[in-house]
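Form P-L/3: holo structure prediction, ligand flavin-adenine dinucleotide.
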Amino acid sequence: MPKETRYDVLIAGQGAAAYAAALYAARYQIKPVVAGEEFGGETAIGGQIENYPGFVDIDGFDLMTRFRDQAIKYEVPIITENVVDVRKDGSEFVSELGDGSRIRSIAVILAIGRERRKLGLPNEKEWMGRGVSYCSTCDAPLYRNKKAVAVVGGGNSAVEGAILLSKYAKDVYIVHRKDEFTRPDPINVTVMNDQKNLHQVTGTEIVELLGTDEKGLTGIRLSKSFGGKETIDVDGIFIEIGADPRVEIPKRLGVILNSETDEVHVDRVMKTNVPGLFAAGDLTDGSGSLKQTVTAAAQGAIAALSAYQYVSEHRSRKGTVAASSRH
Ligand SMILES: Cc1cc2nc3c(=O)[nH]c(=O)nc-3n(C[C@H](O)[C@H](O)[C@H](O)COP(=O)(O)OP(=O)(O)OC[C@H]3O[C@@H](n4cnc5c(N)ncnc54)[C@H](O)[C@@H]3O)c2cc1C
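OUTPUT (holo model):
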């Protein structure tokens, strides 16, 4: 029989949403546990953060260490195993972790984020935060007055990212594998066409990231030449080819997803359609297209309040049943 431990609320994930939920749940005096294999989520690997209120400029890993320290101060247990399955057992949840152990809880908060789509090129992972980024909204200001940056992708986020970057870097190259930009909103394409320093490299793929382990990324190699050159020197590359919310577990539980984005659909207090199951952060459609550390943390806090209310109601229901069965 696998080991089973009981808590009031299981919080899956180790990112901003999860740690904010843990802090608030602990302060509401319900018994939370955090489970996730990798510390810090996207914030921890995102390099410098310049838009988390209260910090003019902080390394993402340091910020997440502060999040975790605050949860530890409230003695929240942290299990470094991923949640592999969550199922309902009567009015409770039983979650299975990577090591085969189980957690029984009254409520679950899923804060497991999303998977950024990768180009799959050598050094892409190693140079993340050193020239390779997946978030132009987050990192564009770091490229103020830099000579050149590249954006990869052909959707709205790539085009919006390129427009934003054109206000910071001297030259921006948007590299799209198709010949035309058919997916973005027409207004975005019009604005892009008007930017003199934004060069559209279409019908082209990036085949190699150039640089060194010491310097990080310094350039890109293209599948065909642009302006007579097959390589372009760039200070950064923004890979904006989409992200997939981690919805396998919620789907198995019958959670309703947002029909357009495939994200977990939550109401304004982070409830899903499954009673006792809450979700927060980038996994959800709760903050629209703005997916940031601050929005994830805020949603984590709201989810914790909802979980607290649910746990309290659950206890009083159980108390009522126990009391009436004594008569
Ligand atoms: C390169 C980059 C730079 C960024 N820069 C900024 C910035 O400057 N400012 C800003 O505000 N935002 C920035 N962001 C966005 C920000 O990092 C995210 O919005 C934020 O991390 C979302 O937090 P989250 O907790 O919802 O998800 P995540 O941070 O993605 O955390 C999800 C957690 O769940 C864990 N997990 C996954 N599967 C499981 C499972 N089955 N069981 C348990 N745990 C699981 C993951 O390992 C991770 O710990 C950046 C993102 C990137 C990629």
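COMMENT: The first strand starts at residue 4 and ends at 12.
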